[in-house]
Amino acid sequence: MRDDSRLPTSPGFWRSPLRGPWFTSVLGLVLLVGITVLFVTGLVSYAAYNPDLSPVNDKTPDKGILGFYLFAWPTDPHWLYRVNQGVHVTLGVTLIPVLLAKLWSVVPKLFVLPPARSLAHALERISLLLLVGGGLFEFTTGVLNVQLDYVFPGSFYPLHFYGAWVFFAAFVAHAVLKVPAAVRNLRRLRAEEPVSSQESAPAPERELVSPRPDPATVSRRGALWFVGGGSLLLFATTAGQNFDGPLRRTALLAPHGGPDPGSGPNGFQINKTAAYAGITAPETDEDAWRLVVTGRTGTLRLSRAQLGELPLHSAALPIACVEGWSTSDQWWRGVRLRDLAALVGHDDDPPDVFVESLQRRGAFRHAALRANQVADPRSLLALYVNGEPLTPDHGYPARVIVPAAPGVLNTKWVARMTFGETR
């Protein structure tokens, strides 16, 4: 008889004694919880952009029924987006070793012949293809975006959004089929059991067990500790991006994981610099710059000095970015957005506002804010931060700061604000 053990379609090709229903079941149940949290926090993050408010906020305009869950984004608690996105990104990076180990544990099933033994088996294989492909796609695009070196063809927002729905649909279908068996495997089998005893599992699970395993060099429990150690290492080198001070220096794999830039009152994290945005000194010169405010009663043009003569208020708010990094609360001081709305005729009920920036390059040169965000007394057109004027990289001459909003909606280098319009 011809020995075909050198082909991946042969069970004899896969020799690791670690593979088996117990090992795969443990990894699968960890991913069941982790990926569910990732999916929910990802949807919440998308809702935070208020995509139904304005086309400029919506990076997936053809979402259709996939936007059924969207809701008006709140301003309380003020750290909501910071926590949500920190969990989403940090958990996603932490789960990478678990995902790779899970794919390794089931790789023999990807080569099983015939590819479809029945209609039910064919559907399972299709869901598995979408599950594996979707998982690799989502984690890859997510990591590329987090590292600020996104090179995948196409815009990150629609690719990641639609990819998440395809991946999670396959994930749910797979979980419905496999979770009962995984729970049974954990109850019936133990990590220390030899491969021969695990061959008594049902036929689908037996496909993971090598008929001629190599000698074991590590136990299954030891392999899980190895995977867990990898996840812990990634957590330790990513989570610090959510904190200021010494902890941020531990975020070696995060895009803003080094020490806070500069020092002094403006020495905290920056996503887009003035140079990157194409901001030049002449257009932000205090004598030349004017804020154009339009509303019910007409248009005003206000210099920075005139804004400084209006009632100024303070709010302690963080900056939180979609890439997962955030700052602690910074002390902002400026004019309330609702007071600016009142200057142009919106005294009692502040409306939505359309904000335009001097920014020339990059996304979110314009952004819309909901009426509840405008009305919040902590929402400011900030002129100062931590007791000093804004620096150019932090949005001088003026920037928007809104509680619980994604960083890109806290528009820097504001040039015009149109109340009652979101375009």
UniProtKB/TrEMBL annotation:
<dbReference type="InterPro" id="IPR000572">
    <property type="entry name" value="OxRdtase_Mopterin-bd_dom"/>
</dbReference>
<feature type="transmembrane region" description="Helical">
    <location>
        <begin position="128"/>
        <end position="148"/>
    </location>
</feature>
<keyword id="KW-1133">Transmembrane helix</keyword>
<feature type="transmembrane region" description="Helical">
    <location>
        <begin position="21"/>
        <end position="49"/>
    </location>
</feature>
<dbReference type="InterPro" id="IPR036374">
    <property type="entry name" value="OxRdtase_Mopterin-bd_sf"/>
</dbReference>
<feature type="transmembrane region" description="Helical">
    <location>
        <begin position="87"/>
        <end position="107"/>
    </location>
</feature>
<feature type="domain" description="Oxidoreductase molybdopterin-binding">
    <location>
        <begin position="281"/>
        <end position="421"/>
    </location>
</feature>
<keyword id="KW-0472">Membrane</keyword>
<feature type="region of interest" description="Disordered">
    <location>
        <begin position="193"/>
        <end position="215"/>
    </location>
</feature>
<dbReference type="InterPro" id="IPR008335">
    <property type="entry name" value="Mopterin_OxRdtase_euk"/>
</dbReference>
<feature type="transmembrane region" description="Helical">
    <location>
        <begin position="160"/>
        <end position="181"/>
    </location>
</feature>
<dbReference type="GO" id="GO:0016491">
    <property type="term" value="F:oxidoreductase activity"/>
</dbReference>
<protein>
    <submittedName>
        <fullName>Molybdopterin-dependent oxidoreductase</fullName>
    </submittedName>
</protein>
<keyword id="KW-0812">Transmembrane</keyword>
<dbReference type="Pfam" id="PF00174">
    <property type="entry name" value="Oxidored_molyb"/>
</dbReference>
